[in-house]
Amino acid sequence: MCFDSGMHFRGSTITEPARTIDVVHHTDVLVCGSGPGGLAAALAAARCGVKVCLVERFGCFGGNITTVGVEGFAWYRHEHTVEAGGIGREFEDRAIAMGAAVPESQSLSHELDAEGFKVVADRLVEEAGVYPMLHRMVVAPVMDGNRVTGVITESKAGREAILATVVIDATGDADIAHRSGAPTATTPIEHMQAASVMFHLAGVDKRAFLEGVRADPQTYGDWSTGEWQIETSGKEDAMFSPFLHKPFAQAVRDGVVPAHLTTLSGTWGAVHDTGELTYMNLVHLAGCDGTNPDSLTRFEMEGRRQVMHAIDALRAYTPGCEGARLRNFGMTIGIRDTRKIDAVYNLSEHDVRNEARFDDSIGIYPEFIDGYGVLILPTTGRYMHIPYRSLLPRTVRGLLVAGRAIGGDRIAHAATRNMACCAVAGQGAGIAAAQAVRHGVDLAEVDIGDVHTELTRQGVRWR
Ligand SMILES: Cc1cc2nc3c(=O)[nH]c(=O)nc-3n(C[C@H](O)[C@H](O)[C@H](O)COP(=O)(O)OP(=O)(O)OC[C@H]3O[C@@H](n4cnc5c(N)ncnc54)[C@H](O)[C@@H]3O)c2cc1C
């Protein structure tokens, strides 16, 4: 036997013995994953008065906001932007009230503080009476025929089961839908959106940094410099963007960073009085498969390597960053694009570009498209409906999907993956799940009129 490389064992299998495991919790609505989609779903369902449990694999709620450091929750918002309000807006307002947000540089919004939002999410969960279960990875659905009736988790406590009347898959990767046999689709790896290792800096001279930004302001039109070509609607091109490309291009030219790192580019988030420059979205890793741990291992390490080169370039060529140092990486690599369910209705590019309207709307979303080489900002008041059917997986019962894995094509996903849209889908999912529990009906049979009444009561604009 050879122990020097795991590769020698690839292809061989073992049979895991069947075992009896404890059911550690029963609930009405079980939400798996606590990003903007899952957190909104859990809060919305609990506010309908049913029992809700929120399961999360990490030690904090918030998903990409808190674990990756994606702080730009509503950077699309401009004077004429029309939105759903609801729990997405509450995330922002509560973060402001708790000192966990600062004004965002390019929009009429606030940037969430990735660390502070952990506490905001704790408070929201506690106040709504959601039963919290952190540090549990959902590894399999519990099935009764084609109905999902709970999940199996793995943790330091071993394998445990949680049973529920309705399950909401808000894992971002449609883990439960996929394992329950519901059809899902994945973008071919060569066309997937890149993954990013995010980081935050300390030791930045805020005044000098902002003077540098003012002296050489960047625009969305500048996004089409270097590696990327971005399609806009034209109106975006001259607008200010917190874009950083020149320091990295110069660093490549001067040999400060390796010549192949031409993809270093992107946006900065917030610069704080205390010298922190946060939400540094500069490292883009093409070819990372977010559902493959070997791929994740490779790109976590490569991402960290690239971040250190990016910091060298910032220190050398960006005013105010001369004394900057790494404050922290996100807790995990940021994944944008994995499985999406084949839903009862899959949103299309036509829908998101043409203000789609649906009778089963669960909330509106402004015309904001960001991804796969397209950037359209909602500066005009145009908006679309998010249909309930795009949360309903085909073939499997007892399960809704909320967040970035809802049904849709690539350009639809470039809209619905955004965190505020994930919160819209999550809130609708939570309300529909609670209605299904209350009335003892299948998720596909929920009365959409009742859902609309509750959405209105919860302050969501849905038409
Ligand atoms: C680098 C980067 C930058 C981005 N920038 C922006 C931006 O500026 N603005 C914007 O709106 N969007 C942005 N996005 C997109 C946005 O962050 C995501 O699409 C969004 O967070 C998805 O929300 P979600 O609730 O579906 O999933 P997530 O936020 O991914 O949350 C999923 C949660 O489920 C948990 N989970 C996953 N699997 C399991 C399991 N099996 N068991 C238990 N728990 C599980 C995860 O730990 C996580 O907490 C960015 C994404 C990345 C990666």
Short summary of the structure?
With 463 residues, the chain is an alpha+beta fold. It has helices spanning 36-46, 64-68, 86-97, 116-128, 175-179, 206-215, 246-253, 293-317, 349-353, 410-416, 419-439, 448-457, and strands at residues 22-32, 52-55, 101-103, 110-112, 131-133, 137-144, 147-155, 158-169, 184-186, 199-202, 243-244, 266-267, 270-271, 277-280, 325-329, 339-341, 361-366, 369-371, 374-376, 383-387, 399-401. The strands form 7 sheets. Strands 1, 2, 5, 6, 7, 8 and 21 form a 7-stranded mixed β-sheet that branches.
Question: How would you describe the overall organization of this protein?
Answer:
There is one protein chain. This protein is 29% helix and 21% strand. Mean pLDDT is 96; it is low at 1-6. It has 463 residues and is of the alpha+beta class. The protein has helices at 36-46, 64-68, 86-97, 116-128, 175-179, 206-215, 246-253, 293-317, 349-353, 410-416, 419-439, 448-457; strands spanning 22-32, 52-55, 101-103, 110-112, 131-133, 137-144, 147-155, 158-169, 184-186, 199-202, 243-244, 266-267, 270-271, 277-280, 325-329, 339-341, 361-366, 369-371, 374-376, 383-387, 399-401. The protein has 2 domains: 22-186 and 339-457, FAD/NAD(P)-binding domain (3-Layer(bba) Sandwich), CATH 3.50.50.60; 194-329, no CATH class. Helix 3 packs across helix 11 (419-439). The chain is built from 12 helices and 21 strands. Flavin-adenine dinucleotide (FAD) binds at residues 32-38, 55-58, 63-64, 67-68, 70, 72, 75, 137-138, 170-173, 175, 196, 198, 281, 334-336, 403-404, 417-420, 422. Flavin-adenine dinucleotide binds at residues 32-38, 55-58, 63-64, 67-68, 70, 72, 75, 137-138, 170-173, 175, 196, 198, 281, 334-336, 403-404, 417-420, 422.
